[in-house]
């Protein structure tokens, strides 16, 4: 069973200062996980993790990862600005975006970031916007269906991202003619895999591509970015990935494919978000209503605006009723929020202990793509973010939104000037 990293006793103290709902993150878990990843790839002297800022765009979280030696993966202007403010610069930053505005390429170039091109036509677009840097990366899409054995993992052929192999070859040649000297390869073929074979299989594909690109273009390939895709077990019946086995699998592919080709200086990058933060964040809410009609409902003071994955994807997030971890799950509930949408449900037909009004509900695995995907539909305000420090104290790392924040984009006019907040 999944175990929350906070107890009812701790939450009783926290809510005296920070009312529910709130997102809370486990500093100890984050640091230990980052160190484990680094250990798994320590065989590669150039290895670096570039945390996907989109997953948890909070400067306090980024600072923790920075202290653990991570860089950042950015995909927008504001993510670049946030990373710069935290102190990331130059090769600390990987800029991977698509349908990219010229201003974002210009900002990435000013920061000295690694720029990852998503399309062949972006070569001239980048050149006009910011020039061609000496080191540049291209994103590869092999097309077709990606599978492990007989299990289909994803469908790259339907994805909007990346270049074909033929375009990769032409892009390298064109970029070399424009002054590029060092190249990277990037690819993302499947999302949230809970399978130790995904990264080694992807690595083998990209390593073979790297050898072919070197042979056909004479380009110097300095790094290969395996991107994200290593997932987490949202359901309690699944075993988590073993990052040590994954790292060893990538090492074997590296020695099999790259070393014989004389490419043993290629650095390996990862670009993980969910794996780095997902299990180390939770949404804590309070049961405030119950409803007995055709089904049994428990209404929370949180809603899909705080965690939209269940509403958007039908995604499973495990739920623990704090203080009732050892009680039998004898009641079947839909656990809902208050949005005017019937998909605003954190759980459907979920067997849980009897929930009483005032109980604290801990929604697991919300540390990545949780707060970040929040929104303001129905005028809902986003919650605070808290950090459970290694010493057991709690730090506010983002205050809750206020009505003043919600109406701030009308500050150019007088329509709401008399509103009382």
- How many angstroms does the end-to-end distance come to? 43 Å
Rg (C-alpha, Å) = 23 Å
Annotated CATH architecture of the largest domain: Alpha-Beta Barrel
Number of helices: 12
Query: In CATH, what is the class of the largest domain?
Result: Alpha Beta
Report on the architecture of this protein:
The protein is an alpha/beta fold. It has two domains: 27-278, TIM Barrel, CATH 3.20.20.10; 280-410, Lyase, Ornithine Decarboxylase, Chain A, domain 1. Helix content is 29%, strand content 23%. The chain is built from twelve helices and 19 strands. The protein has helices at 8-14, 27-40, 59-67, 77-86, 102-111, 122-129, 165-177, 198-217, 243-258, 274-277, 309-313, 403-406, and strands at residues 22-26, 48-52, 71-74, 93-96, 114-117, 135-139, 146-148, 151-154, 182-186, 220-225, 267-270, 281-292, 296-300, 319-321, 331-336, 345-352, 360-363, 384-388, 394-398. The strands form three sheets. Strands 1, 12, 13, 14, 15, 16, 17, 18 and 19 form a nine-stranded mixed beta sheet that branches. Strands 2-3-4-5-6-9-10-11 form an eight-stranded parallel beta barrel, surrounded by five helices. Helix 6 links the parallel strand 5 (114-117) and strand 6 (135-139). Helix 2 (27-40) packs parallel to helix 9 (243-258), helix 3 (59-67) crosses helix 4 and helix 8 (198-217) packs parallel to helix 9 (243-258). The model has no long low-confidence stretch (mean pLDDT 96).
